[in-house]
Amino acid sequence: MRNIIILFSLVIFFVIYHKGHQQIRNDLSKPPAEREVYYRIGTIDPRFNLSESEARSLVLEAAKVWEEPLGHQFFFYHPKAAFTINFIYDQRQQTTNERQQAERVLNDNQGRNQSATDNFQQKQSELTDEYRRHNDELAALNERISQHQQMVALINARGGATPMERQSMQMESDQLDRDVAEFNQKGTNLDVEQVNLRHQGEVIQTQVDDYNQKAKDYNQKFVGHPFEAGLYKGDAINIYEYGDKDELRLILAHELGHSLGLKHSRDPHALMYPTMGEQDLANFKLTQADIDLLYGRANPY
Fold first, then answer.
1. How confident is the model at residue 34 (pLDDT cuts 50, 70, 90)?
2. Of 4, 57, 141, 294, which is most buried with the most CB atoms under 10 A?
3. 21 closest CA partner among 89, 64, 62, 79
4. Distance CA 151, CA 139 (A)
5. Does pLDDT of 8 surpass 50?
């Protein structure tokens, strides 16, 4: 009798232990609007610099994209859920990081080039005005010289100048010489400014050429090479790349839509559109196209 009691106790312990470790699996046979998706956070590669609590918070925000406008909870976190959300770091995220770094460099260079160009154009305009004033000064100076020469000719024609006239004419001649010397120095300074400005323009053009080459390299490497940011696999959602938290939130919401059984929408503004681009990442609102997909009122893409 004692042995039987012990054996019975062991059986009870085994059943309790087994139930305690049994995973919760989602029923994929239900229609999208009736599904309950139980999930947990699976693998997070540390290179994402994303903690599990941050990941859970972002998944909750992504779930609210569906749940808040419809007033219905579809997604439930459970530590024993069989369905996992994983963050897998590979060449895709590495390329995204490189793209973001290249964008920062391009934006910085573009800003510096624009500032340098604006400064160059301002100086060019000021130098043009200075040359215009210099030409006006030249015309005025030539007029004074002409009048002085005419006066000298008149005095000489009537037999010469009186001592007072001679002193006055000499003072005027000396002033004209000083004004001509000052005018010539201004002209030299303007020419130096023009040479320096031309050099500055060449430097800016070199910087612009360098920017254009970097932009060309960027386009060849990154533009037209879309990656699979997220993937729904039936028993898991794998996130492979994202640019920022707003983008990640929308990627998660899109893949959660697939976990409800939804296919892609034809509306480029919809959450379930195959690619991101037209959606407002920071303030996205579920579209009617998404809602129609959920309730089976639209043909999937």
1. very high
2. 294
3. 79
4. 18
5. no
